[in-house]
Each structure stands twice: as structure tokens, then as C-alpha cells.
Design brief:
The complex is a heterodimer of chains A (about 270) and B (about 675). Chain A is of the alpha/beta class and about 270 residues long. Chain A is built from 10 helices and 6 strands. Chain B is of the alpha/beta class. Classes of the chains: A alpha/beta (about 270), B alpha/beta (about 675). Bound molecules: iron/sulfur cluster (3 copies).
Chain lengths: ~270, ~675
């Protein structure tokens, strides 16, 4: 598929409508993000492992807002851009998405239910994805066993903030996870209820389940088991699917000072 | 728009994670962990994630500085500063000889730069007065393991730690000090490996351990001997291994006989039954892995502690296989490499002894000079020599003894008596602020070179942005100073060429070159270009032939609590800051996490002293006193207090004891006697 990708990227570059194309490169014994320019040798272009490219696009927008770029993105990454654009962290007009369809094995490995990007230019969209995400069977919630499970998981945390740093949609200027009013600074592992639940709560209407946070977690905490369940709740209550429609307003994108969520729902006709 | 993603190695701890620095239009905007790297595997700790934040700090030194007649430091040109260094250093050498000069190299700098520093000392200045802060952390490892195994380095590799059935962690707060090794211990434990922690202080690992033993600080030989006593008593030793691969066992045995668990309990405070359980747990594992760090080394008997740890592994045959070994975790990004490169008072590159005539002859020939056979001075000894007026000039590369060394008041006096103090650094550290001449160095993100991680893994660092201001890479600065002293053999055009010279004189690095390193790291020994590197040492044979058991006796710390100073102070580091904090304290994410120092005090002691959490207290030792907020916590045992040493405004090292281990000359940072009192009016 890399060969196909090289051809597609070369074409996009040749058209000259973008300054360059963000993708992945294998070089110096490692794979990492790379910005390909017109005329570059594309032999080093590869497609995996997946990196949090929407995060890089956020940096592009922050430091060079007037540059129009192309990017080789998978379905989840495109959905991340949708969530980011709602929060004015990227400008969709300035990004040409070169859609990459994950292979069936890749989709299975991620437990993906959302599928390919809108405009697949590399690979073939995978058919027959499961309807619903299969969650791990967690211990019962009633007798406190589930709480114990999460306590044990979170007690491994080394407070690297990797789950926040790598997350394409974790884009607040001031992060509450580092706010001493909520979480005591310097204590390890961080106190259970706040540090992790702040992130979980903030993910409930924006996480696109790319699972980069789990990949970055040095102690393998199954973070999206929590986020994913919250997402389903939000989907059920607010009929809101993350990353789908750039025009749909995120239900939690409001403050206590602002209009309450109910009003928002009524205005939206819900 | 110019965007680059530059693969490099983390500048902080010895884990050696690889990351991509994110550069837009010549400025650092972020960091991403490498997903394909064996150590980082897509993760970093908080320091690595934020390592780009301080690089372009407005506080960076941007021009050379020379102290003027008014006593202040003023900007100067490179030529002015280098000429002045050349002439004044030459004058000292001419008048007092090379041994009146001391050089401190740096575990933060590259292998190439450390090689050049020791070459500058030995081939140009003409002295063996070259050392660096490894003296303060693992000198006792280098001495202890070189004697018993033949090589003073981690025997195994970071990736094989999770393969152990039982991990014994002692004197290492692994999660905070070596986070990506700590995370592997956590994952191993989760998968069912047994975990034993022996540490006087609560750490993230001690709370999840199967067995946590907390000894009285400074009593490690006693519990180690007692563990071996139990193993022998119950026949859990590996007799085949002892027979085939070791020597000295019979000499050691009578000493162990005396250290019953009860004797140990009296000395260490560890209940005999718990110690027995730990001994059984470690000895009955098929693959037992020991991780240790400064809780073992930073004692006046640090070398004995290290030998004792080695004894335990030898006794149980936990050597030379995956998931086993004696694994000293080296603190700094390149402290392993700085030692390998011979930035030590007694050895040339590759641990070839200065005292050995053949080794001297080899370097005489390589460098075209006659190397001095006079034994050099170590870090702490240099400070004494300066204090006594015997040391006239010092050249300090990227070190900050004004915060990192024991008994800072003494260091200050010593440095201020020097005729010439030159400091090369990226920030105006507490030490640089005392210098006559300060030279601005390029940061790790602004230069090329190699670091050697704690598991002997030689890896590349790569230039991501241009040096800020007029700063220059350290290797270039050292070459320029050598040039001003009229030396030849320093006309290197890049670190590649320096490494080409390194490999010709350093057998362990013989097969390393930049082209090979482009494909990933290489673990030494790597003696020839076709050698794949060595993930595990001592597989069929110890570096010294047979593993040597050493009979070691418990010895009390140099300074014990008494009526005037009734408590024991132990010092260390924490997750969120690094050493003297020059970089981490300029990193917003880290400064926000922990803005200043604190002293950990057990609730029992706090109650007795009438101290509340957060209240200011005065901590005093025979050498100095500091005011510092108290953190009342059960992490420390009654009678013991802990202070992280990163913070100049409440510097732990104003208090610490410079008493030295007689062999390795490492100071006793981990134990000194202090008193604690509430500060009047301090809420
Ligand atoms: S899966 Fe993790 S990294 Fe991805 S969007 Fe959700 S929270 Fe962020
Ligand atoms: S990535 Fe994992 S270890 Fe790091 S802060 Fe998040 S949960 Fe904690
Ligand atoms: S674990 Fe060590 S090497 Fe890895 S990111 Fe943290 S400080 Fe850097």
C-alpha cells in the first residue's frame, strides 16, 4: 500500500495546491512524522505505525496559520480534525485530507467501529466493521469491584501526562489535570478520582477513539475503556457522535456561566 | 513553512528514550516519543515530554561573559574570552604545573565531549585532575563491580527486566528516577513477577511490592549478608554456578555465618521473619533481577554495599541470563558514557588504568605526548585542594557543584579562592555565577553527538535547531581552548571525527561508528565493526574471568544522630525535577507541578515537634541550615527526614556530609545527622 500512497502523495504535491504533505517516514532506523515537499524522494514514505498526526496539524495551525497543507490521515484522525475544528484548533479549509483506509487487520486490532475517512485515496475501505465497540468485561459495579479495578489500574500511573500530550483532541490552553485546585501537584501516583476523571469527563464529547493515549501510556492503563463508555452515554443522551458532523455543537461545550445544556438542546430542536 | 521532526535521545535520565523534536520554522514546538524505539515504545515520562520547553528560554546564556574590574560579569566576544582563558590557564600551568588545574567534565554532555575534556586534561594541561559527577552517584558501582565482575556497568538490558520472575529493587526510586524502567517493573509485577523493595522511604514501587522492607539508612551490608545467610541455611544457593563460575566463596562464608536474621534485625530494624521471606522469594526465582541505585552507592561504605549486592546475585546464579543480573541504574543521560570516556581521575577511556604503564604508553603514542602518572584528584578532593590553595584554576563543563556537591558552603569558599574559574554552561548556574569567565554552550537540541544509556546503549543525539545566540557546541569550545593552549590533535570538524578517534583507543567502543548508529543504538562491548553489541554481560564468563565473592562487614555511617542532631537526613530526587533544576525549573509544566523544595517528616515527629503540614521549619546540620516547608507524610519513617536536592533556595546539600567512601571517594549523601525545628512566625 505504501507504493500506492507514494503515487497519490506525488500527485497531490504536483498539483501545487498545498505547501507540503504531512505523513510518515522511515529513516534512521525509526518511523516518525515527516513533511514531504514537491520534488522530495518519496521512497521513505510509510503508513504505519500510526502517529498522532492531527496533533502535528494543530501545531501547524498554531505556528503557521496561513499555510495550506496536505495530510495522509486515517478515519479516526480525520474525525479528530472535525472535533478540533469545532473548537477552532484547526481550519478544515487549510487541510487537504488524503484519506487512508485501514486494512481489515488494523481495524480489528483497534476495535474500530467508525471506519474509513470520507475521501479514501489510499487502500480500500474495510467492510463489515462491528456495529458496537466490544468493551472489556469489567467487574461488577454494584459491590465496588469495578471501583477497585479502576483504582488498581490508576495506581500504576506515573503522571507522565502522555495520555493528554499525545491526544489530538486534548487541546485546552489551560489543562485542569495540572490545576492544583483539583489535583495535588507532585504526588505519585496522582490521586485517583480527580486526575483521571478530569480527562475522562473532558473526553466524553470529543474523544474519537484513536487510542493514542493507550499507546502512549507506559503502564498500559486501558484508558479508552472509560472514555468509550462515557462516549456511548453522551451518544445516547444527546444523540451526539464525535467526529461526524463539523456543524454539530458538542453538548458539553458550555460552561456553568454559559447557557445550561438543556436550553442548548431545545434550541437545537432536541 | 519549514517543519522537521528530528529523532534524538532524551537529555535527562539514563533510560535513553528516543523522541522526535518538533521544529517549525527553526523553533521547537513540541516533542513526540518514538514508537519504534526499544526503550520508549511510544512513551516518555513528564520530563522527556517537556524537554523542548527550556531550550529557547530567555535565560539561556547567549554570549561569553568576562568578570570585569567592577566584579560583575560582562558580555564579551568569543575571541576575547578564549584568548583570556588561554593566557591565564597557561600562566597557571607555567607557574604551578598542570596539577594546579582541575577539570570537571559532565554526564550531561556527549561521549565525544567527555573524551575531549579528559584528553584536554591529560594531553594538554598535563594532569589527571579530571572527574565529573559520577563520583557523586555511582563511583562505588564502578569500583565495586569492576572488582567483583570485571565491569562496572549494568549487566543486563532495560528490555529484559520484565522477563524476570522476581525483581529486587533497593535504594532506587525507580518510577521517579528512571520512569521508563520503573514502568517495566510495574508491568512485570502486573503480569505476576514478584517484587521486593528494600528502601527506608515509601516509593511508588514499595506500595505495590509483595514485600517491602524498610531498613535504617546506612545498614545495607547487614541485611544483604543476612539474606545470604538465610539462603545458605536453607540450601537455596546455586552450588553449580558457585563451583563453576566464581571464586572466594569459602572466604566469604564465615562472615555470612555471623549475620543471622536476628543480628540483622538489631542493626537494620528489619523484622527477621520478613527478611527471611524476602530471601526465600528472591532465591527461589528462576530469574532474579536486582535493580539498585544511589541508596546503595552514596555511602561511606558504598563500594562494600555494591560488592554485597553482587555477592547476592552470584550466590544464586542470577547472572548472564535474560531477566537476571546486577543492574545499577545510572542517573544521568550520559553518566555511563562519561565514565566510559575516562572522565575519571584514575582511568583513561575504556577504564584503562592511569597507573598501568602499558596503558600510559598506549595513550602517549596515540596523543603524541607523555601522560602524567600522578594520580588525579576527585570532585570533592579538588574542592579541598582549592580550599587549601593548592588548586589554582578550574575548568567546569556543564556541572553545578554549588548545588550538587555535599557541603555547599565549603564548595563556595573553595571556588572563590581560585585564581581562575571558567564555566561552560547553557544557563548561569549557581556555579557559573561565581566564574571569572563563562562560555555559552549549545544545548542538546542544538548539537550532534552520542549518549550512552544506563544499559550501555550508545545512541545518537541530533541537531534540531541552530544554537541560540552565539552559543557553541561544547566539543567545539573544548577544541578552541586546547587550540589556545597551543595543542595539536584537536582540529576536529565534527563529532563524527571525534568518535573515529575514540574507537581507536577504547576497546569496548571499537566497532561503533555513526553509520551503524543511524540504524539504532549499539550496546557495548562492541569491539569490532561486525560485532552486534552485547545486551547481556558475563554470559559464559565474567569480564574478569571468575566472579569474585567479597567478604564485607557492616559499618556504621560516618555521622550518626546524637542529642544535638537527633534525626537522620536522606536526600534524593523526584519525578518532576532533575538534578540542580537549571532546566526543569525553567520548564513551565514541571515548575507548575512542583515549584519548590520540601522536607518530608513523619507525622509522629511532626506532632512531637509541633509542626503542621506546609509549615516552615529549620533543618540544621553541623555544616549549615536551611528553611524549608514541611511535608508531613508517612512516606518516611519516624526519625528520618527526606529532602530533594533540586532547589537552590532550600538546598539539601548545605546540610550533607562530605565524608567519603575510601575506595570510590563518593560522599555520604544518603545519611547525615540533622535537627528539625519550626521556624518562629513561619505559618
Ligand atoms: S482515544 Fe485517547 S488519544 Fe484518542 S482522542 Fe480519545 S482520549 Fe484522545
Ligand atoms: S499516560 Fe498513563 S501513566 Fe501517563 S499520565 Fe496518562 S494514565 Fe498516567
Ligand atoms: S524516562 Fe528518562 S529518558 Fe525517558 S523520557 Fe523520562 S527522563 Fe527521558
Amino acid at each position: 500500500m505504501s507504493e500506492e500512497a507514494r503515487g497519490v502523495v506525488a500527485e497531490v504535491l504536483a498539483k501545487g495546491e498545498v505547501d507540503g504533505v504531512l505523513g510518515l517516514r522511515e529513516d534512521e532506523g525509526a518511523v516518525g512524522p515527516h513533511y514531504f515537499r514537491k520534488g522530495d524522494d518519496l521512497d521513505s514514505l510509510v503508513l504505519s505505525p500510526k502517529y498522532a498526526l492531527p496533533l502535528v496539524l494543530r501545531w501547524f495551525r498554531l505556528h503557521s496559520p496561513d499555510t495550506r497543507v496536505g495530510a495522509v490521515l486515517r478515519g479516526c484522525e480525520e474525525r479528530a480534525l472535525v472535533e478540533l475544528s469545532k473548537r477552532r484548533q484547526v481550519d478544515l479549509e487549510m487541510i487537504e485530507v488524503i484519506g487512508l483506509a485501514c486494512t481489515a487487520e488494523e481495524a480489528k486490532e483497534c476495535g474500530c467501529v467508525n471506519g474509513s475517512p470520507t475521501n479514501v485515496m489510499i487502500g480500500t475501505p474495510t467492510e463489515g466493521l462491528p456495529e458496537r465497540r466490544e468493551f472489556l468485561a469489567l467487574p461488577d459495579a454494584d459491590d465496588g469491584a469495578r471501583l477497585d479495578y479502576w483504582k488498581a489500574q490508576y495506581s500504576k500511573c506515573i503522571k507522565c501526562y502522555g495520555c493528554k500530550n499525545v491526544c489530538p483532541v486534548c487541546a485546552c490552553e489551560v489543562c485542569m489535570m495540572a490545576d492544583h485546585g483539583w489535583v495535588r501537584g507532585g504526588s505519585l501516583p496522582p490521586k485517583f478520582a480527580t486526575f483521571h476523571l478530569i480527562k475522562a469527563y473532558h473526553m466524553a464529547d470529543r474523544c474519537i477513539e484513536c487510542r493514542e493515549c493507550e499507546a502512549a501510556c507506559p503502564v498500559s492503563i486501558p484508558l479508552t475503556e472509560m472514555y468509550g463508555r462515557l462516549l456511548r452515554d453522551v451518544e445516547r443522551r444527546f444523540d451526539y457522535v464525535t467526529g461526524a458532523d463539523p456543524e454539530q455543537r458538542p453538548p458539553l461545550l458550555t460552561t456553568l456561566m454559559d447557557e445550561p445544556i438543556l436550553e442548548e438542546e431545545e434550541e437545537g430542536g432536541g | 513553512m519549514e517543519y522537521k521532526s528530528v529523532l534524538t535521545t532524551c537529555p535527562y535520565c539514563g533510560c535513553g528514550c528516543n523522541m522526535f523534536l518538533q521544529v517549525i520554522d527553526g523553533h521547537l514546538v513540541g516533542t513526540l516519543p518514538s514508537k519504534t524505539h526499544e526503550i520508549s515504545r511510544g512513551s516518555l515520562c513528564i520530563k522527556g515530554w517537556n524537554s523542548h520547553e527550556w531550550v529557547e528560554s530567555p535565560d539561556r546564556l547567549r554570549t561569553p561573559l568576562i568578570r570585569g574590574e567592577d566584579g560583575e560579569l560582562h558580555p564579551a566576544s568569543w575571541d576575547e574570552a578564549l584568548d583570556l582563558i588561554g593566557s591565564r590557564l597557561q600562566a597557571i600551568i607555567d607557574d604551578h604545573g598542570g596539577d594546579a588545574v582541575g577539570l570537571l567534565s559532565s554526564a550531561r554532555c556527549t561521549n565525544e565531549e567527555n573524551y575531549l575534556m579528559q584528553k584536554l586534561a591529560r594531553a594538554v594541561v598535563g594532569t589527571n585532575n579530571i572527574d565529573h559527577c559520577a563520583r557523586l552517584c555511582h563511583a562505588s558501582t564502578v569500583a565495586g563491580l569492576a572488582g567483583t565482575l570485571g565491569s562496572g556497568a549494568m549487566t543486563n538490558s532495560t528490555p529484559d527486566i520484565p522477563l524476570a520472575d522476581c525483581i529486587l529493587v533497593t535504594g532506587s526510586n525507580t518510577v521517579e528516577q528512571h520512569p521508563l524502567i520503573g514502568s517495566r517493573v510495574i508491568l512485570a509485577k502486573e503480569r505476576g513477577a514478584k517484587l521486593i523493595v528494600v528502601d527506608p522511604r515509601e516509593t511508588p514501587l514499595s506500595t505495590m511490592a509483595d514485600i517491602w522492607l524498610h531498613q535504617r539508612p546506612g545498614t545495607d551490608v547487614a541485611w544483604l549478608n543476612a539474606m545470604m545467610h538465610v539462603i545458605l541455611r536453607e540450601g537455596l544457593e546455586d552450588s553449580e554456578f558457585i563451583e563453576a563460575r566464581t571464586e572466594g566463596f569459602e572466604e566469604m562464608r564465615p562472615v555470612l555465618d555471623r549475620y543471622t536474621p536476628q543480628v540483622s534485625e538489631e542493626i537494620t530494624g528489619i523484622p527477621a521473619a520478613e527478611l527471611e521471606a524476602a530471601a526465600r522469594m528472591y532465591a527461589s526465582a528462576d530469574k532474579g533481577c536486582i535493580l539498585y541505585s544511589m541508596g546503595i552507592t552514596q555511602h561511606t561504605n558504598g563500594t562494600d554495599n555494591v560488592k554485597s549486592v553482587a555477592n547476592l546475585a552470584l550466590l544464586t546464579g542470577n547472572m548472564g541470563r535474560k531477566g537476571t543480573g546486577v543492574n545499577p541504574l545510572r542517573g544521568q543521560n550520559n553518566v555511563q558514557g562519561a565514565c566510559d570516556m575516562g572522565a575519571l581521575y584514575n582511568v583513561f577511556p575504556g577504564y584503562q588504568k592511569v597507573a598501568d604503564e602499558a596503558a600510559r604508553a598506549k595513550f602517549d603514542e596515540a596523543w603524541g605526548v607523555t601522560c602524567s602518572d600522578v594520580t588525579g584528584l576527585t570532585v570533592v578532593e579538588m574542592m579541598h585542594a582549592a580550599h587549601d590553595g593548592k588548586m589554582k584554576g578550574m575548568l567546569i563543563l556543564g556541572e553545578n557543584p554549588m548545588l550538587s556537591d555535599p557541603d555547599i558552603n565549603h564548595v563556595r569558599e573553595a571556588l572563590s579562592t581560585l585564581d581562575l574559574l571558567v564555566v561552560i554552561d547553557i544557563f548561569l548556574s549557581e556555579t557559573a555565577a561565581m566564574a571569572d569567565i563563562v562560555l555559552p554552550a549549545a544545548s542538546w537540541a542544538e548539537r550532534e553527538g552520542t549518549f550512552t544509556a544506563t544499559d550501555r546503549r550508545v545512541q545518537r543525539i541530533r541537531k534540531a535547531i541552530e544554537p541560540v545566540g552565539e552559543s557553541r557546541p561544547d566539543w567545539r569550545i573544548i577544541c578552541d581552548i586546547a587550540g589556545r593552549l597551543g595543542a595539536e590533535g584537536f582540529d576536529f570538524q565534527s563529532p563524527v571525527h571525534i568518535m573515529e578517534e575514540v574507537v581507536t583507543v577504547t576497546p569496548q567502543y571499537g566497532g561503533i561508528d555513526y553509520e551503524r548508529l543511524e540504524e539504532g543504538g549499539l550496546q557495548w562491548p562492541c569491539p569490532s565493526p561486525d560485532h552486534p553489541g552485547t545486551p547481556i554481560l558475563h554470559v559464559d564468563k565474567f569480564t574478569r574471568g571468575l566472579g569474585l565473592f567479597s567478604a564485607v562487614e557492616h559499618q556504621e555511617p560516618n555521622e550518626l544522630p546524637d542529642d544535638e542532631y537527633p534525626m537522620t537526613l536522606t536526600t534524593g530526587r523526584m519525578m518532576f525535577h532533575y538534578h540542580t533544576g537549571t532546566q526543569t525549573r525553567r520548564t513551565p509544566a514541571l515548575d507548575q507541578e512542583v515549584p519548590t523544595g520540601y522536607v518530608e517528616l513523619n507525622p509522629e515527629d511532626a506532632k512531637r515537634l509541633g509542626v503542621n503540614d506546609g509549615q516552615m521549619v529549620e533543618v540544621k546540620s553541623r555544616r549549615g541550615k536551611i528553611h524549608i516547608p514541611a511535608e508531613v507524610t508517612e512516606k518516611v519513617q519516624p526519625g528520618v527526614v527526606f529532602i530533594p536536592f533540586h532547589f537552590a533556595e532550600c538546598a539539601a546539600n548545605l546540610l550533607t556530609n562530605p565524608a567519603l567512601d575510601p575506595v570510590a571517594k563518593i560522599p555520604e549523601f544518603k545519611v547525615c545527622a540533622v535537627s528539625v525545628e519550626p521556624v518562629k512566625g513561619g505559618a
